[in-house]
Amino acid sequence: RVIMGLWPLVSSGYGRQMYARVTTMDADLDRIPLESDWTGRELFDTVCRIIGLREIWYFGLQYTNKKEIPCWLQMDKKISKQDVSKSGESTLQFLFLVKFFPEEAEDELIQDLTRHLFFLQLKESILSGELHCQPEAAVLLASFALQAMYGDCNDEMEAELLDKFLPKSVIAQFDLSNDLWWERLRKWWSNNLGMASEEAEMEYLRVAQDLEMYGIQYYPIWNKRNTKMLLGISAMGVGVYEGNNKLNPRPFFSWNEIKKIHFKNKKFSLKTKDHLDISFQAFDASINMSILDLCVGTHNLYLRRRQEELLEVQQMKAQAVQLRLKRKEENERRVMEREERETLKRELVEKEMELADAQMRIIRTEDKLKNLEDAAMHSGHETAYLSQRASEAEAECIRLKHSQRQLEDAMRSEVDLYSHMRNSSNENRPQYTSHLMLNETNSWSMNGGPLSATVSYHQLMRSAEEEQHEQIKSLHSLANSALLSPHMQAASLQPPPDPVAQSMATQDLHVIKANLESTRMQYNERSKSLKDRLSEFRVQIEGLKRDDYVPSENDLAHEQNVQNGCIDRLTTLRMSCRGTTKSRIHEMDAK
């Protein structure tokens, strides 16, 4: 991102107009006009105003002098009097970097912009190898960087971007392809699900500040015996390093032991509270002012942390607390919304499955209904047939009754005629009709017929009537059953009650219990010790190291520190700070 100069300025001299190009960790401030009498402070304040930075005491402007040595721009000295190299004929190049590091980033950094600039600079230092980082910590830091820059884990990252998050020195140590590295990175990245970008950056700083080389700026020096060493200036104190080992100072002096800092005749002298001198000389005179500026500024910040905070700092912290609380509420709201979305997605899937099941039940019910309708139609035909049969039976009964009455009338007429003829006839005179009737009567009696007497005739008629009534009753019963069956079948077609409505309350209860259990499990997982996770990962990848890899001196020093129980920067410094001040000064001068 390139930001042009925001206002035109005219040089007070007659020479060519000069410009400054300042590169920050996330922007380029291009062509800032410079006055010929500007000091470093005026340019620094201009840059801070442009980017909106308020915690200015952590930062500085760095340039490369004509000897290609990085130096810090002196705030109280004119820019034209300092050995700043030019880019072209009229542009001066500067880097806007962290100059003074805090002891605890979480407690001291206030602004989001300040934290973000720290994050970007530490990330760049680790990727470039300037800040040594062991493999397990590098993977953890990469997971926080991915969370801060891209949010929750996704599968859209390209394996070619691996060196944007892992140092090449770490990748070269192990026999792993880019895809396998990404697989491990995604596993750690997924542990940061739901973490906000600001929180991920702060987690990055928490891990990075435990690295042995965190916040240390190294300068080559000579001791009293003109032995070349490295002077390491940090927020905790001043360390002296031998050779290429930048992890273990031999010895280390805390700022608490140092009372004053002097520079005279190209020599530095750090006065201790025991009235002892820690003396050394810079390897190159061009870095004398940078060393002095760093020592004085870092010592002042060390003392200021242990005093009452300024009113401006208190106000900034109060505003930051309110902003963080607001951001925390927003983050919790986003988490709740995400959980609600996940719950709704699960419920939607369940409802879709229930809908599909209901549709299948509807199809089956429709098939049953169609079968029942066919059966009802068939039953209707049978009912009509049985009704017709019942009507025919009733007609037959009526006909039989009519025939019976006719027969009874005829029989009574014959009986009356026979009685009349018997009383009025002569016994000697044969009667054809009476003999015929007697003969017929005798023949019926011999055959066991019902007309052998008047009682037998009535019994026959009663039996016939009962048989006809039973037949008619059976026909009516069959017809009524056929007529009633469609109504009974229609009643049987009523669908069963929907089980979804009955189980809704039970499902809601199960969902609530599942959400509570999920929240509890996530809390337990996030409460695991970070050091245990790193140790486990270290064991996992230890067997994947290349056989032909040659460890650097810093790698060997870190392994030695781990074996000695120095697992972070503070324990390493405490180990190097053992002994009296006098004995450590003697150790430094004796080399």
From TrEMBL:
The UniProt entry's coiled-coil ranges are: 306-410, 513-547
SMART domains xrefs: B41, FERM_C
Which molecular function terms from Gene Ontology are attached? actin binding
Q: Please report the stretch or stretches of sequence annotated as the FERM domain.
A: 18-306
Q: Which PROSITE patterns does the entry mention?
A: FERM_2, FERM_3
Membrane topology, as annotated: Peripheral membrane protein
Q: From the Swiss-Prot or TrEMBL record, state where the protein is found.
A: Cell junction, Adherens junction; Cell membrane; Cell projection, Microvillus; Cell projection, Rhabdomere
Entry GO terms, CC: adherens junction; microvillus; plasma membrane
- Which keywords describe this protein according to UniProt? Cell membrane, Coiled coil, Membrane
* The keyword Membrane is assigned to this record: yes
Q: What is this protein called?
A: Moesin/ezrin/radixin homolog 1
Q: Which species? A: Pristionchus mayeri
